[in-house]
Design a protein that fits this description.
Distance between the termini: 68 Å
CATH topology: Aspartate Aminotransferase, domain 1
CATH class: Alpha Beta
Helix content: 40-55%
Strand content: 15-25%
Number of helices: 4
Strand order of the largest sheet: 1-2-3-4-5
Radius of gyration: 24 Å
Shape: elongated
Length: 154
């Protein structure tokens, strides 16, 4: 779980009635996949992998509010994500106990996000490997044709 010193410093000075629940959500998200990172963006902790996944809304005091920037694009069904439209989704956590109850959902959301962002990379790598194999096969065929032509001339 790679924690950012920048985010640690932000939490050290941040006073919020739901601070413990926020810290637990942070641990859960960072523990979901080692590729997920964090930084401070828009004056708030933000979780990232190949783009912005989610940011805390530090102004909300009644609960922990986590905004998933492009939450509508996260594959799968995630009933805890609130909102409509084709962009953002929100997750509300009302207590430390609620953060624990949301653990599996948060992990599924993070994993779905990472899988969706990793899929195009995997496809590109596979496509490049197929192309490289085809080029190599063509080169081998051309070499075999040239050798056959040289033998025929002799």
């Amino acid at each position: 779980m790679p924690k950012s010193p920048e985010v640690d410093a932000w939490f050290a000075t941040y006073e919020h009635p739901m601070r413990d629940a926020m810290l637990r959500v942070r641990e859960i998200l960072l523990g979901a996949d080692a590729r997920l990172t964090e930084c401070i963006k828009w004056k708030s902790p933000t979780f990232m992998y190949e783009g912005n996944l989610a940011s805390f809304n530090p102004r909300t005091k009644a609960h922990v509010s986590l905004m998933f920037h492009t939450g509508a694009q996260i594959p799968g069904k995630h009933p805890r994500l609130l909102g409509e439209g084709d962009t953002a989704r929100y997750l509300k956590i009302s207590s430390l106990e609620d953060a624990e109850a949301a653990k599996k959902d948060l992990e599924r959301i993070a994993k779905a996000w990472i899988a969706s962002k990793s899929a195009p990379k995997k496809a590109a790598v596979k496509k490049a490997a197929v192309k490289k194999a085809a080029v190599k096969k063509t080169a081998v065929k051309k070499t075999a044709v040239k050798k056959a032509a040289v033998k025929k001339k002799r």
